[in-house]
Amino acid sequence: MWETLVEYDRELFRFLNSLWIGEFDTFWIYVTQIENWIPLYLLFFYFLLRAYKIKSAIISILGIFMVAAVTLGLTNLVKNQIARLRPNNEPVLMDSIRIYQTPENFSFWSGHSAVSFAVATFVAFLLITTQAKSHHKPNAIDSKWLLLIFIWPVTFALSRIMVGVHYPTDVIVGMLVGVLLGYAFAKAYFVLLSRNQ
Fold first, then answer.
1. How far is CA 36 from CA 77, 152, 168, in A?
2. d(CA 24, CA 32)
3. Would you put residue 184 in left (φ > 0), alpha (ψ -120 to 50) or beta?
4. Distance from C-alpha of 52 to C-alpha of 180, rounded to nearest angstrom
5. Could you tell me if 113 and 134 are in contact, meaning their C-beta atoms sit under 8 angstroms apart?
6. How far, in Å, are 49, 68, 81, 148 from residue 88 at the CA level?
């Protein structure tokens, strides 16, 4: 049963990795680079500064760094315990897939997926939750921006398949872990906020 699931995962990876060969390679290579998303993080900081009083906003911005660090630490711990080879290092795949990056660490789960979804969930929850109403300024963010917040991690996570370094299950589990951790940190944020009022 497990081997069947692994094989389905490989075949889905092959299919997704082979889509649009040559047409969007530059796009996926650009998207998958962490440093290219720094302006988006600055936009998150801006939204939080608009949404909250200065002390609460600073705590929320620090929360972004904390949720990213904790998610990355947990991801690396699990990766080293499970020790699943990445597609780009898998002998049965290496000669039949597109590979645009060659990381040597392990695959399960995707750190890019987990961290981006954790941060996006944390920020989105802080901006939309009804608990924030007593702390926020009017018209802090337009609802259309909330959809854009999640376009980022979806695209970012998908890029990991397209550049040949993660299987679909790596990405999906990373997404789920990120959402759970982002939600947990958001809840902890509001507990901290209520204790400091």
1. 26, 11, 23
2. 12
3. alpha
4. 23
5. no
6. 41, 25, 19, 30
Q: Where are the alpha helices (DSSP H) in 83-164?
A: 111-128, 143-162
Q: Is 136 helix (H, G, I), strand (E, B) or coil?
A: strand
Structure-block tokens of residue 119: 């941060």
The per-residue pLDDT for range 100-148, each reduced to its tens digit, is 777 788 888 899 999 999 999 999 988 886 444 544 454 455 566 677 7
Instruction: Please state the φ and ψ torsions of residue 136, each to the nearest 5 degrees.
Output: -95, 165
Token pair, residue 101, equals 């990056």
What is the pTM (predicted TM-score) of this model? 0.86
Instruction: With beta carbons less than 8 A apart as the criterion, state whether 155 and 91 touch.
Output: no
Q: What is the mean pLDDT of each run of 10 residues along the chain (197 residues)?
A: 79 82 81 89 88 86 94 95 86 75 84 95 82 48 70 90 90 96 91 72
